[in-house]
Design brief:
By secondary structure, the chain is mostly helical. The protein is globular and about 45 Å long. It contains five helices and no strands. The protein has one domain. This is DUF2938 family protein.
Length: 150
């Protein structure tokens, strides 16, 4: 398999399952399911269904972006995925989304624990990202190569 091409199926699975992991960690810490989807729906005025669609679409798009740039990143694959989500959380969530929502940089105006919670949730998102973009894809490639040699 050419490592320069995105495996779209795996990237989409990574985005969906990673976003589910993100939401499960959020549920464990906040007791609220789809809190981010609710905020998106509320702020856009389009409701929860749109918020869920937007939230999961964002997770898929980030996974596709990661799948596209991962081959050019240095380091072990598990670390690449985690560094990607750390950078994405700091740049896009802490310095863009939270201030846009009036929560200040890293969300500290809303809650002092918000930066920690947002980082933990994104790190949870990074685990399926690593698995589906790297491990699952490599296992599929190995299985395919084994079948071709028989």
């Amino acid at each position: 398999m050419n490592s320069n091409k995105i495996n779209w199926r795996n990237a989409i699975l990574a985005g969906i399952i990673g976003t589910l992991a993100f939401d499960l960690v959020g549920l464990m810490f906040t007791g609220t399911w789809w809190d981010i989807a609710g905020i998106i729906g509320e702020k856009t005025g389009l409701g929860l269904v749109y918020g869920v669609f937007g939230h999961y679409s964002n997770g898929i798009l980030l996974a596709i972006l990661y799948a596209g740039i991962a081959p050019s990143l240095a380091g072990p694959n598990w670390l690449k995925a985690q560094i990607f989500v750390i950078a994405e959380t700091i740049a896009l969530v802490w310095f863009f989304m939270f201030p846009l929502l009036g929560a200040g940089v890293a969300g500290v105006k809303a809650d002092a624990m918000l930066p920690v919670l947002s980082m933990v949730r994104h790190l949870a998102y990074g685990v399926p990202l690593w698995f589906f973009v790297h491990v699952f894809q490599q296992n599929m490639a190995s299985s395919s190569a084994t079948l071709k040699t028989r």
